[in-house]
Amino acid sequence: MDDEVIDVRAELDEAPLRPFHWMLVGLVLLAIWFDGYDVLAPSYVIHYVAPAWHLDSAQSGLLVSAGLVGVMLGALVQGIIADRFGRRPTMIGGLLVSGAFSLLTAVFVDSYSGFLAIRVVTGLGLGVVMPLGTAYINEYLPSKSRFRLASLAAAGFSLGAVGASVIGVLFTVHHGWQVLFYVGSGAGVVGLAFLAVFPESAEYLAARGRTAEAARLLSRVRPERAAAYREGVFAVVRPEAGRAARSREDWLLPLRPPYLRTTVGLWLSAFLLLFVNYGLSTWTPNLLVERGDSFSLGFGTGAALHSLPFLGGILCGYVADRRLGRRGSLAVWCTVGALATVSVILTHNPFVIVAVTTASGFFLIGSQFMLNNTCAMSYPVRARGTGTGYMLGFGRLGGILGPWIGGAVHGAWGTDATFIVIAVAGALTVATSSVMAPPKDAAASSRAAQTVPA
């Protein structure tokens, strides 16, 4: 009898949900937690180092932006490294780099230039974690549970941002700003632990001809088929004829009609939303303390800001599916979020400040979840990864500029102007999202593109 041909992708898609999957979700969530924590930890350093290092507001903003430059560069190269050397060593390497340089920050940094330089390198490691972790967990999860559990793993970023705020409030007063980076160095400890518990991608192993290792991992996913995996022949998906030429076409597809209009809207929206995300995260705690609110309230707003964006994104998607569509729900979310952001300047009541800050995160930062989903649904399957990568790459520029421009505006015109500029950026997303093609047009274009022969 012929040996059974094992299709790794089909085996993983059709698997029932098992404890092994939950373990992987937990590991990826933990890795992404350090991404969210360490990217935003410098927001809580500004209060301490700006006077000592004689920094103006724009220079203070660069304390956050420097790490984001590294994150952008790390995200750009992680796919190439992971495809060449594997998902497991790339993820572990990213955690070790970020952990080691966080420790160096805590122990040795005593100058502005030194802080910026080390933050760029730290960002290179951090830039690996989110995109690689998201791709990795999607490779392993069953198709029926993929979106829900991948979203749960990605929520580690918001939880990490909340963690940075909590550490900032509770420990920096007595232990100095360095404590933030001692905690961040825990990424290196996690990286070492991953050597023992973080498995390689089964699909990657099969594609590399390491079928015995792939069989062992698949047996953990579907133990009832362990014998078939030991004795079967693994199918290796090879590029079809003309794939190289098609790949070049796929790189350009988001930049051509009928997708160009949607691409422009997505890029501008991502730029503005990440500008808002990092602008708010960097400056809200510091500006509230500067204008006279309590230290615990100012730094506590960082936790409030990142406590509910995940739920905001889920509800935005629900409203989009049931009522308003993707463009309509984005417009409502960004409008309400912009109004909440402006409201911060109108009150000193602690309860109102926490409420409107939470609303800002729920609506404006939560909109990014919806935008990512909108991007994935706007292109045919063969160009989805490319389209999403382009959008997030361009959006990262907004994330880099948000803290710096927020600081420059604060230095020139004060606290209220900073919140107004961030709110206006959020409101402008209503206009940029309207540039995107209507859902019917995008869907029709996607279907048409997928019927073109190879």
TrEMBL record:
InterPro entries: MFS (IPR011701), MFS_dom (IPR020846), MFS_trans_sf (IPR036259), Sugar_transporter_CS (IPR005829). The keyword Glycosyltransferase does not apply. GO terms for molecular function: carboxylic acid transmembrane transporter activity. Gene3D superfamilies: MFS general substrate transporter like domains. The chain crosses the membrane at residues 20-37, 57-77, 89-109, 115-137, 149-173, 179-198, 264-283, 295-318, 330-346, 352-371, 392-413, 419-437. Keywords: Membrane, Transmembrane, Transmembrane helix. Residues 24-441 form the Major facilitator superfamily (MFS) profile domain. It is found in: Cell membrane. GO terms for cellular component: plasma membrane. It is a multi-pass membrane protein. Pfam families: MFS_1. This is MFS transporter. It comes from Streptomyces sulfonofaciens. The lineage of its organism: Bacteria, Bacillati, Actinomycetota, Actinomycetes, Kitasatosporales. The gene is pcaK.
